Protein: DUF4291 domain-containing protein
Amino acid sequence: SHLAQAISSRWRSGLHARPSPRSAGASTLGAMAHEEMALPLMYYSLMRCGRSLVPPAGKQGFREIRAIYDDETVRVYQAYNDAIADAAVAGNSFRAPMEQCLWSPTRMTWIKPSAVWMAYRCGWTTLKDKNQARVLALDVSRSGFEQLLMGAVLSHGSKEGKCRNRAVVVQWDPERVMDPRAPPDEVFTKKLVNVRSIQIGLRGESVQTLLNPSFVRRVTDVTPAFRAAVGALSASPPDLEAAGALLWPRPEVELPVPAALRAALQMDCSGE
Structure:
């Protein structure tokens, strides 16, 4: 369609645009250099069907946080049912659904910065269950996000039971890219075995941060974009460029983080 072509053209023109980095003290020179070297993961999602969806060796870090971000915020995603999503978006906060007894701050919840991983988890909002029928984008404080992760325990390699009562749990799962040829249970996505994506589990006191307006700056319903994107993927022929343009309003690229956080999250691990 003309709309999809216009979106694709606008998105391609910004594909290599980079958000301005924060001051040099906020991240290591090594992390910045690595971020500049790496190509956006979405580029590989948009490869035409006859070409590889797997990044060339050396072009992606094994463990990196890829996100839409700017100097102040980082975007993460969650999926909810209609009632919670409506209340959260209307109030720009989870306080409203909590007060309506729809959302519980005592229940463990997960946030993820990868849009394609979110799409896989919720089935693009239409291919799984009604409790994942809506996707919300949370633009959270970048400094708060880093502080939250500094207290995380990694699930991989931890002793049994170590993660059970921790406020923040990090899993490094295989990243996913869009793939219109994927089998039904992969819901138009494909696993990348040589690239990891961060999944962040919150429980107890860390869930309370989602009620803090200084942490959650904006709550946006991005469900229409996810549904339009899977529509482009399921079209005949599939339109990967249109899907990418719809899914990513800005490029999802590697987030430079302080050296201490890289160490805490074991981000410089070479592989598993």
About this structure: Residues 59-265 form one domain. Confidence is low (pLDDT under 50) at residues 1-59. The chain has ten helices and nine strands. The beta strands are 66-67, 73-80, 109-111, 134-141, 153-154, 168-178, 189-202, 216-221, 253-254.
